[in-house]
Amino acid sequence: MNNLQKLPIPHWILVFAVVIMACMAVSCSHNSEVERQLNAAEDLMAQYPDSAMRIIRGIDLATISDKQNKRLNVLYAFGSVLHATAGQLDSAEIHKGDNWFIGEFSADEVKWLIVKSNDAKLRGNNVARIEYLKDAEFLAIQLDCKFELAMIYQYLAEVYSQGFNGTVSKYYADKSIELLKELDYPKQLREAKMAVVGALCARRDYKGMLDSLLAMKDEVMAYANEGYKVFFLDQLARSYDENHLTDNAIRIWQSIYRNKEVSSNTLAHIAYAYTHINRLDSAYMLIRQANAQPHSNTDEYLCRNVEYQILEKLGRTTELAEIDSLRSLAAQKIAEEMKLEESSLAMNQKYDSAARLAWMETANAHVRTRMAVFSGIILLILALGIIVYLRKRNLLLKLEHENDVLKIQSLQNNLFESGQHQEDTAKKISELFRSRFKLLDGLASSYFECKETGQEQKRIYSEVKTSLGDFSTEATTQELIDIVNGYKNGLMEHFKSDFPKLPASQYRLALYLFCRFSLPSISVFIGTDLRNVYVYKSRLKSIISKSETPRKEEYLKYFA
């Protein structure tokens, strides 16, 4: 410093400025390096979370800015959720994180809501978990955060499958799969497919569950880590057991859990499998081990159910009442914990009102602070709103008009098709009449040629027999069916649908009766005695009379 004081004043000022600029350059370069590291970690988070977490841990916190520190903490917490290593947050951490995002709408806020939903999961509050996830979904859609949205859908599928609402769970799992396929993230895609398996299990669609697991088995065994393979094979074994392939299930369990510690949940499933093959002593030993281990209320309910079935099969009825009371108590605790029916209702109300209102109020907070200055803008916004409303109303009226035009066009098309159908039927009837006139003409010509000769009766008989034989062909029968359907409002078609189990001979008899042929003529057409025709007609009439079809009276009028 003494040397600096000896320099002329201008030179001292110049040196001091250079030092300040050098410090600022170092600080800026450090901040830009931190920003680059944060960007790299965020890019790697989806497919390579291990690498992303290593980058985050390696960032120098000495001169990091508040904004970068906020982003780093959110990325670290989000990565911990993806790794399933996140612990519970205390109230101070939650309050601090919420303060970060007041008036800000960014992908970091979506990540923070996912972190809070995981914290609600660890606390056993599924209602709050769904609320945070639905808030995150709403914001992610606005910001087009596809990866975060895919994970939100996956977590929603998980929570609803645990609440035994398989239909809703599969809906969200399918949406997650759709997004992850678009993003081409294979690891998360496997997780989403397993979420579909969980949804099918919740729906008790065990056949679909087994098919899904078998479809992804090769991929899991080729690319997943050892821990995930054990989890996958355990789910496959459970699915085998539910599909009555218990031997396959037991072989898998023996291969993956040999000389290893097994959870109470898995022990209960193995014991349940042993009951299916009547190895009750082994099943009872396993369920006793499961009961002795620490477990949740859900596992307690599962273990007591399996124990009840084993004791019932062993004939130890005196112990059943105590076991039944224990599983009832566990069921009550599960209902208190899950509350998914309440959460579904609460979520619908919140998503439609409270959450959206809160989000919109936060989004417009800076507008409300300047309301006194911009009071005139409110009137303009109101006017614009009226204009937009009127434009939308006009658009709706236009769409309604176009819809009416389309309906009219559809009616015209239907009328045209109906006219064509009637024209086709008329042609068939015309062809039938021409064939009948041709028949009469042929018979008359034959009679004229052979009258008053020895061949008269023989030839006329032969001609009539040939004509009747032609009349009984499948082609002629189909023509009669088309005519009856065309001119009697689909009578034959309705008859077949009302009586689908009748033999073909009775359909043919009904067809001739609907055409008003006499019974002697029918006996000739079907080649049987007249008394048999009376019997067949009586039987068919009895079947129709006893039926519950609404067209019964319409059919019976042809049997009078």
Structure description:
This protein is mostly helical and 560 residues long. 82% of the residues lie in helices and 0% in strands. The chain contains 27 helices and no strands. It has helices spanning 2-6, 9-44, 49-57, 66-83, 91-100, 107-122, 126-143, 146-162, 166-183, 186-202, 206-223, 226-242, 246-257, 264-276, 280-292, 297-314, 320-338, 340-363, 365-369, 375-450, 456-471, 474-487, 491-498, 504-514, 519-526, 530-546, 552-556. The longest helix is centred in the C-terminal third of the chain and has 76 residues, at 375-450. The chain is extended, with a radius of gyration of 41 Å. Mean pLDDT is 78; it is low at 1-9, 15-19 and 22-30.
- By helix and strand content, what is the structural category? mainly alpha
Any low-confidence stretches, pLDDT <50, length ≥5? 1-9, 15-19, 22-30
Number of helices: 27
Radius of gyration: 41 Å
- Helix fraction, binned, reads over 70%
Strands, count: 0
Q: Main sheet, how many strands, which sense, barrel? A: none
| Strand residues, percent | under 5%
**Average of pLDDT:** 78
Alpha-carbon distance between the termini? 129 Å
- The dominant shape is extended
Topology order in helix (H) and strand (E) letters: HHHHHHHHHHHHHHHHHHHHHHHHHHH
